[in-house]
Amino acid sequence: MTSKNFKKNILCIGAGYVGGPTMTIIASKCPDYKVTVVDISEERINAWNSDELPIFEPGLLERVQKSRGKNLFFSTEINRCIDEADIIFVAVNTPTKMFGEGAGKAVDLQFIEQTARRIKENAKSNKIVVEKSTIPVRAAETMANILHSGNNSVQFEILSNPEFMAEGTGVADMEAPDRILIGSMDTPSGLQARDILMDIYLHWVPKERLITTNLWSSELSKLVSNAFLAQRISSINTIASICEVTGADVTEVSRAVGMDSRIGSKFLNAGPGFGGSCFRKDILNLVYLCEYYQLNEIAAFWEQVVSLNDYQMERFVKRILQAMFNTLVGKKLAIFGFAFKPDTGDTRDAPAIYICKRLLEEKACLNITDPHALNNARKDLQGIERGVEFIEDPYQAVEGAHGIALITEWDSYKKLDYQKIFDKMEKPAFIFDGRNHLDHKALYEIGFNVYPIGKPALKHL
Ligand code: NAD
Ligand code: UGA
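Output (structure tokens, whole complex):
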């Protein structure tokens, strides 16, 4: 059925943040399967074949090095690999559509459709096709229609197997997942395909963590998971605003509320707004779906989660502006952290992009520092670099600065010598801790005017 020494050939189309890491984990846990990852981007594939991986994810390089060349391969030979595969994961990007019908909300399905057509053109034997990308509900139907169109005698069984890993903790999330969700058709061939996919995960995931559902429930559950997580963040961010005007402390409120086991303590950290490539896009996808089915009140409910996130980013900027005497013209601000969260170099939809653009509109000068995201930050701010410096060393970034805005809670920022930093800054020195990451009392005692999120400011003025 497949290459001599392997039980099955697995192929993943799309070597991005999901395709690369998920296939690396499958290869490392299933030495009896051959795993190949392909992409249209030669640059990405070359990077996966080097020790400068295209993405930064703790623990990933070691795992790639362990399996690469043995049962893990990265290639641009998409057509040949499709033909050789038994199971094909589709992990291409599904961004928000930016043109035409549904612009700004619907998913741009062009990469999914191109992939389906390529599979159809090159598959000469039956295949299981697994949706790993996050897609709208009933996308499997569209894929099936494309795959089975024309005079094609090849049979394709489509499964939904959404990915729940979070960046920065991707390796741990995939090695010990809360759950693996597999949606299939309730037909003999659908259930057989589902069992074949389950066999892969059973190499390391306990059986009780594998959930099986129908295809549409699986597709919808992925959107709902992200919508619920993002909704919690927007909820706590609204409470942060109330805390700032009433003297309550959002960290204390989160703790008190989260200790109710019905509510739970995770994802209740107030911040400058959520970022990342998926929350906004997946909620807007859900909103579009609701509008499509004329569930307008429900669409409005979910859209508000995104509107509140925009409001939160703007609120962070306004707080800086107001605290610094309502003008930032010519003032230097050190930006601590540009990645959308720590332990990743990913800056897609990072709050830092919006916040920095707004600060530049106010004619501030920015010294941006980040341990892993400066290359992406440069690309994000391309064309508006006037007044922006990208500086690796945070001590250099604060030289002559009037304020610091901490946007990403890198652990290394906790360990800096803030007396040394204070001494290098203009006075009065401000610090805006967008993540409540630092020791505010200690900073205040050094002489900083400290503006946390969701807590009263500590100021000498
Ligand atoms: P990405 O942009 O990092 O990677 C997608 C890759 O697909 C790119 O390298 C691109 O070149 C490639 N590609 C596009 N069209 C192709 C084609 N026709 N043939 C071959 N390769 C093609 O995206 P990502 O972050 O890995 O996300 C992929 C999917 O997974 C999205 O649907 C996303 O919503 C979902 N997801 C992402 C995460 C995450 O943490 N990033 C987590 C869970 C789910
Ligand atoms: C998120 C989900 O957590 C994953 O389960 C999902 O697979 C993934 O999206 C996806 O579909 O792409 P990710 O975006 O990588 O993962 O990272 P998160 O840890 O969820 O953080 C997202 C954003 O929310 C970050 O900007 C983070 O700083 C912010 N956040 C998170 C808060 O502001 N407060 C919190 O309490 C938690």
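Residues 215-246 form the longest helix (32 residues).
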